Amino acid sequence: MDSSLPCFLLFILIGCLKCSSENENNTRHHDYCVLGAGPAGLQMGYFLSKAKRDYVILERNSGPGSFFNKYPRHRKLISINKIHTGRQNPEFNLRHDWNSLLSDKPDLLFKRVSNEFYPPADAYPLYLSMFVEELGLKVQYGVDIGRIRAVQSDTGRSYILTDQHTSDYTCSVLLVATGLWVPQKIEFVGSDLVEGYESISTNPEDYKNQAILILGKGNSAFETAQSILEKASHVHMLSPSPVRLAWQTHYVGDLRAVNNDLLDTYQLKSLDGLVEARLEKIVIVQRKEQAKKRSDGKKKEKKKLYLSLKKYIQNQGEKNSSEVTGEDLPSFYSDNFSMRKPYDRVIRCLGFKFNFSVFDSSACPPHSDNAKGRLPGVTAWYEGTGTPGLFVLGTAAHSRDYRTSAGGFIHGFRYTARAVHRVLEQRYHNNRWPSTKLLTTQLLSWVLKRIGEASGPYQMFEVLADVILLRGSQCEYVEEFPIQALPQFSSLSGHEISNHGLIVVVLQYGKKKNVDYLGRNRAHSDWSKANESNFLHPVLYYYDKLPTEEEMKLRPKGWALPRPKAIHHIVEDFLTEWDGPVSHIQPLRRFLEHCVKTDLRTFYAESCFRFSLTYRKPPLFCQQGYLKQQGVVDSSQLWQHFDDAGLVPSEHDSGTSGEDSAFPNYLAQAGASVSSGLKLDF
Ligand SMILES: *[C@@H]1O[C@H](CO)[C@@H](O)[C@H](O)[C@H]1NC(C)=O
Ligand SMILES: *[C@@H]1O[C@H](CO)[C@@H](O)[C@H](O)[C@H]1NC(C)=O
Ligand SMILES: *[C@@H]1O[C@H](CO)[C@@H](O)[C@H](O)[C@H]1NC(C)=O
Ligand SMILES: *[C@@H]1O[C@H](CO)[C@@H](O)[C@H](O)[C@H]1NC(C)=O
Ligand SMILES: *[C@@H]1O[C@H](CO)[C@@H](O)[C@H](O)[C@H]1NC(C)=O
C-alpha cells in the first residue's frame, strides 16, 4: 500500500497534465490507433497492450463488436464452437474453436459465454466485453471517426483522425479494423423495389404464404431462406453463379451445411428453387396482378413483383421499371420462363463492402483487384498499398486470401493480426519476429509438434506458414509468417537467410479440380502417393535462397509458393494426426535429411560410442548429444545392466533389431529406425 501510493499520486498528476493538455489543444497523439473494437481491433489491442505500446482503440458505438448486435439478422453464428475435442492441448483446441481470440489467458475462451455448437450472435459482444475487461484494453467508445487524412512531416508520415466533435487524433500507425458495414448493392431496373437483408423483417410470420425471391446464394441469403422456408409458399434464389458448397470448396465463406435446407426442398421438388442469371441483366417490375374473377364477382387487386430480363424488354435501357408493360414480360411470349410467376417480395442478400468514404484521398487505400473491388487492396503484410503505416485488419483484409483461406473470418484473422503485430514490432521497435533456435537434430520433432498442434497455419492454410532457417548444425524456427511476403522475409522479420537455405511448412489442400469430396478414392493413405493428397495436409518447400518477387508473381497457377528446389508432401490423414512412424515420420525425416544433407536419426549412447570409434564424423545426433557428454554416464554398473537386459548387441545379431517382438511388424518391414521412438501426446 505504502509503496503504491506515490505511484498512484504520480498517476493522477500525469493524468491531470494529460487532460489539461488535451483541453487546450484538442489533439491527442498515439503511436498506434486501432479503428474499431470488433474482434480484429481487440485482437490487435491485446498484442499492443502486451508489448506495452502507446495505443488506443477507437469505437463509434457504446460497446465492442456492435456488428454482432445486428448481424447475422437471424442471430445464429455459423462459426463452430467445438468445446469437446478429447484433448487438453490449448493450441490444438483452437483448431476447432472458431470464435475465441488469442491471448495468454488460457480460460479467456468463447466457451465461457456459450456452449452451443452454433452459438447465438448475442454471445459475441458479451465475449468481447469480457476480453476487453479481463485484459484491460484501452478502448474509447462513442468516438465516431468521420475523416482520416495523412500528413507528411519531418518525423515521417502520420494519420489524423477527426471524430464527430472535430477532435483530432494523430497516429504514427493506423490499424483499420472497421469491418464491412455497407450493404453490397447491384443496380438494375427496378432495384429500388427490393428489400435489403439489413432491414428485412426476421419474423417468419410476415412471410406467410408469400412467394419470395432472394437475390444472392451466399450464407446470408441461405440463412434468410432457411428462416422463412416453413412459412413462405415459394422461395427462389437468384445469383450469377451456381451454389458453391463450403464442404466442396473448403472455403468457409461458401454455403455451409448448417443453412442449406433449401437444397433439399429444391432437389426433392417441393416448391423452392435456385436460378442463375446476371443480376445486372434482370428487371423487376411492380404490376397489379391480373387477378382472376373470384366466385363473388369481386376483383382482388394486389401489387406483385414480376421478374424479367433486359433482353426481353423492347427499347431496353430507355424504360424504367414503371413503364414496362405486360407485353414486355417474358411470360407473354414464352410459357417456359422459370420465373414467370410473380413474387410478393424480392430480398437482396449480397454481402457487405468496405466503407472507403471515411478516407481522404491522402490516406485512402485502393480498391482490391478481386472481390469486385469491395475490399481495400493491401500488401501481403496487410499494409495498404500506397498508404505506408496504414494497415487493414479483420474481415476487410480478406482481399489477400479471398475465396481461398479463412482471412475474412475470426478464426483466420486472429492469426493475421498477430502477424501484423510482429511486422510492427520489427519495423518500429527492432524486435525480431519471435523464433526458436533448435539443434538440427531437434528439427524433426519440432516440425511434428507444429503440424500436430499448431492452429495458425491450420486455419490460415496456404497463407501463414512456418519458416525454418537452416544454419548447418543449427536452425531457427519462425512461426506463422505470411508466405506471400516471403521475398521481403528478411526486412519484415529481421532474420537473415544463410546459404543453407530455408524450408517453408505449409498446410494446403490438393490442387486437383473436380474432386468428388464424398466419392470413392477421394483420399489417399499411402505415403508414396502423398503428392496426390486432396484434403488438408502439410507440404514442405525447400529453397536454397529466398524466392524473389518476380518468382512469386510467376508461380504456377493455384500454388501458394513458387516451385521449390525440393518439395515434400506429408500424406493426408483421416485423423489429421501426422505422427505415424512409417507413413509420416520416416518420409519426413528423409526429406529433412535431404535438405540439411546429414543423417538425422537418433541413436542410443552405445551406438554413438561405436560410431565415434569407427567413423571420422559420427552422425549429427551423436555429435550434438553423446559427444558433448550428454550421453549416458559411463559406469560399470550401467554396462552390467545393459548386458543383463540384452541391449548391447553381440556381433552376430546386430542389424536384426526388426525381429524384436516388442516392435510392431509393419515398422520392421518399412525399415523404420528403431530409435525414432517419438511419442507425441498433444
Ligand atoms: C497539440 O498537441 C500535439 C501532440 O501533443 C502537438 O504535436 C501539437 O503541436 C499541439 N498543437 C498545438 C496548437 O499546441
Ligand atoms: C461510411 O462512412 C461515412 C463517412 O464517415 C459515414 O457517414 C457513413 O455512415 C458510413 N457508412 C456506413 C454504412 O457505416
Ligand atoms: C420513369 O420515367 C418516366 C419518364 O421517362 C418518369 O416520369 C418517371 O418518374 C420514371 N420513374 C422512375 C421510378 O424513375
Ligand atoms: C422455351 O422453350 C423454347 C423452345 O420451345 C426455347 O427455345 C427457349 O429457349 C425456352 N425458354 C427458356 C426461357 O427456357
Ligand atoms: C505425384 O508424383 C508422381 C510420381 O512422382 C507423379 O507421376 C504425379 O504426376 C504426381 N502428382 C501430382 C498431382 O503432382
UniProtKB/TrEMBL annotation:
Signal peptide span: 1-21
One example of a Gene Ontology biological process annotation: ERAD pathway
InterPro entries per UniProt: Auxin_biosynth/cation_transpt (IPR050982), FAD/NAD-bd_sf (IPR036188)
Keywords, in A-Z order: Oxidoreductase, Signal
Keyword Signal annotated: yes
GO molecular function terms noted in the UniProt entry: flavin adenine dinucleotide binding; monooxygenase activity
GO cellular component, one term: endoplasmic reticulum lumen
Gene3D superfamilies (UniProt xref): FAD/NAD(P)-binding domain
A matching Pfam family: Pyr_redox_3
Annotated protein name in UniProt: FAD-dependent oxidoreductase domain-containing protein 2
Organism: Collichthys lucidus (Big head croaker)
Source taxonomy: Eukaryota, Metazoa, Chordata, Craniata, Vertebrata
